[in-house]
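Four helix bundle protein
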Amino acid sequence: MYFRFQNKIAYEKTLIFTKDIFNLTGKLPDYEKNGVIKQLRAMGTSVLQDIAEHYSSKGPDDSFHSLDRSIKTVAKIAAMIDLCHNLGYLSSPNHHSWTVYCEDLAKHLEEIRKSPPKK
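Predicted structure tokens:
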């Protein structure tokens, strides 16, 4: 496989996470299509792209920065999930599930960032 990222667990997890964000945003009110929906979808695809970039990077600095961006973007997604809950778009149980989901992905990415680069 030419693209190394396609067979990595972090990429697979992020791909599912991004798909779930698209599913979630599909259930939000239509009047949010240029607001919350657009932002969440853009951030979800950004995380996915940063993971692909991480595994495609030539040097450790680029790889580190890609992971750093992805972790920060997951935090931004968690903040948007909080906003959706406070706007009444998400129930408390869904809000909690999404918060845990974001935390789990961020922790997984942080573990990768802390591990020594493979040669």
